[in-house]
Amino acid sequence: MKAMPWNWTCLLSHLLMVGMGSSTLLPRQPPPLTQKRSFVTFRGEPTEGFNHLVVDERTGHIYLGAVNRIYKLSSDLKVLVTHQTGPDEDNPKCYPPRIVQTCNEPLTTTNNVNKMLLIDYKENRLIACGSLYQGICKLLRLEDLFKLGEPFHKKEHYLSGVNESGSVFGVIVSYSNLDDKLFIATAVDGKPEYFPTISSRKLTKNSEADGMFAYVFHDEFVASMIKIPSDTFTVIPDFDIYYVYGFSSGNFVYFLTLQPEMVSPPGSTTKEQVYTSKLVRLCKEDTAFNSYVEVPIGCERGGVEYRLLQAAYLSKAGAVLGRTLSVRPDDDLLFTVFSKGQKRKMKSLDESALCIFILKQINDRIKERLQSCYRGEGTLDLAWLKVKDIPCSSADNYIPSWASLDSHHHWL
């Protein structure tokens, strides 16, 4: 696939950072407790683990993605409905899955780990994707978790071969008079020939339609996807892109990632593998993924860098924080948690920090980098695409300084 990916090699400076355990937004003296608070609880089957949770913003109903089950709970955690998703006979080496083609690998009773849980509000259904059969998804009716569809007979229906819970993120882009899109980002676990790391899929109105999860665009040369070249694995054998969070805002879809890279420590002639955090952005309407851009993201305090992303969440500024950051209450803010370490992928035991980014300022920085790259300044430092830096090329039609990214996304 031909794409025009750009990369920004500068660390994004933090806009606000609060050390874990303290916050300037909390009252100095907490009000005295007048009564003991009570909490409601929910406990699933002893052998289960909970993987994902989504809340219906219209009804308050809670949907839990667990191992071998999907739960629908009331707002006070009463079980309303359950839907069993596993276990079943499977082998992760079977591709295509044995449900569509005979597999010579030994089959064993295998749990179905929920890897993605999304509410499709437009069609009143839940998209629940599991680890069985290379990542099969079910479409369940929100009301009673009745199975509306389970596409499995095409290779596009297998979204990810990774069996870990936090390996897949999906973002729905909704339209009033067209079928919606589903952007899928996933680790590929050494199978780049089978699974694109990011793709845009059709989310059809009919849950049993033949085109469900088909690529939005796909011809002989170009498709709505990004694939990691197999050559990359010769340099970093265990290379992968791990997706920590995904969201949409304005004309763009964003994913926050962890990626390995090889660096030379000061005074050393050998390279070692560390992890770096990057923000990936795509235009919603870009069917060929030419707008792909990724930028390193992190924050620092007192000369200490926090570069290993642990979690993220998009929300509005609100009145109080908006005044603190000099933004409007309805501006999008990206709340992130980083740790100091870069040697381990996740769950670092090192010191952590909460960092808040104003999304508009991130977009402004991306625009500046795009403009400089069109002027031939800098390199494309994309570890997943090439094993060495590629210089930016001069272009006569680079983005003018007065252009607004939010209203002219077709320039990317």
From TrEMBL:
Residues 23-412 form the Sema domain. GO terms for biological process: regulation of cell migration. Keywords: Glycoprotein, Signal. It comes from the Eukaryota. It holds the Pfam family Sema. PROSITE patterns: SEMA. Residues 1-23 form the signal peptide. The keyword Signal applies. One of its GO terms (cellular component) is plasma membrane. GO terms for molecular function: semaphorin receptor activity. PANTHER family: PLEXIN, PLEXIN-A4. This is Plexin-A4-like. It comes from Marmota monax.
